């Protein structure tokens, strides 16, 4: 496989992780897709600067993160909706408990400081190692570990999670899932 074909394959393989990270940053599927597209275009045009044998995921996540912050700086003159009041007035709440839990988690993530949110998304949601996340964030591994720990504690506090029984399927869902399949 040529270097160019391998680079393309690595880009395509990274799309789901990039999209998940973009969703956590942007909080909107359309904006996340735009971020991923910009990231892929920039990566493709700058592939000569990528060092084969290094971590392409960390490189791509860094491009995405920088693009997000660039866009945020540009949006500085737009109407701010920091507390989500405008957005919340436009949204309808889903009926399923899982969707409600997901919304609670999204809101809780937005309450975290930027550095903690970024660290927990990279490590917890994107599955990066602490070392990979440190490379993306441009800081020491210990700093990422500390940020993830503080983020976990803060999320538990915000979501009022005391132990593992406070999250996951409720007792009704567990009962339904435990029933043998009919047919």
TrEMBL record:
A molecular-function term among this protein's GO annotations: DNA binding
Keywords: DNA-binding, Sigma factor, Transcription, Transcription regulation
Keyword rRNA-binding carried by entry: no
Gene3D superfamilies attached to this UniProt entry: 1.10.1740.10, Winged helix-like DNA-binding domain superfamily/Winged helix DNA-binding domain (1.10.10.10)
RNA polymerase sigma factor 70 region 4 type domain span: 104-155
RNA polymerase sigma-70 region domain mapped to chain residues: 16-77
Name of a matching Pfam family: Sigma70_r2
InterPro entries: RNA_pol_sigma-70-like, RNA_pol_sigma-70_dom, RNA_pol_sigma70_ECF_CS, RNA_pol_sigma70_r2, RNA_pol_sigma70_r4_t2, RNA_pol_sigma_r2, RNA_pol_sigma_r3/r4-like, WH-like_DNA-bd_sf
SUPFAM superfamilies hit by this protein: Sigma2 domain of RNA polymerase sigma factors, Sigma3 and sigma4 domains of RNA polymerase sigma factors
Record-linked PANTHER family: RNA POLYMERASE ECF-TYPE SIGMA FACTO (PTHR43133), RNA POLYMERASE SIGMA FACTOR RFAY-RELATED (PTHR43133:SF25)
The family this protein is said to belong to: Belongs to the sigma-70 factor family. ECF subfamily.
Protein name: RNA polymerase sigma factor
Biological source species: Roseitalea porphyridii
Taxon lineage: Bacteria, Pseudomonadati, Pseudomonadota, Alphaproteobacteria, Hyphomicrobiales
């Amino acid at each position: 496989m040529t270097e160019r074909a391998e680079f393309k394959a690595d880009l395509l393989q990274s799309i789901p992780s990039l999209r998940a990270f973009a969703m956590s940053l942007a909080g909107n599927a359309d904006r996340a897709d735009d971020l991923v597209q910009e990231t892929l275009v920039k990566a493709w045009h700058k592939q000569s600067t990528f060092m084969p044998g290094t971590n392409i995921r960390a490189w791509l996540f860094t491009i995405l993160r920088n693009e997000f912050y660039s866009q945020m700086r540009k949006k500085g003159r737009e109407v701010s909706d920091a507390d989500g009041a405008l957005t919340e007035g436009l949204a309808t709440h889903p009926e399923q408990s899982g969707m409600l839990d997901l919304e609670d988690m999204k809101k809780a993530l937005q309450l975290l400081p930027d550095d903690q949110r970024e660290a927990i998304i990279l490590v917890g949601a994107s599955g990066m190692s602490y070392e990979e996340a440190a490379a993306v964030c441009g800081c020491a591994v210990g700093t990422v570990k500390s940020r993830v720990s503080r983020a976990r504690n803060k999320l538990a506090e915000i979501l009022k999670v005391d132990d593992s029984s406070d999250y996951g399927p409720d007792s009704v869902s567990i009962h339904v899932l435990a029933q043998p399949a009919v047919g």
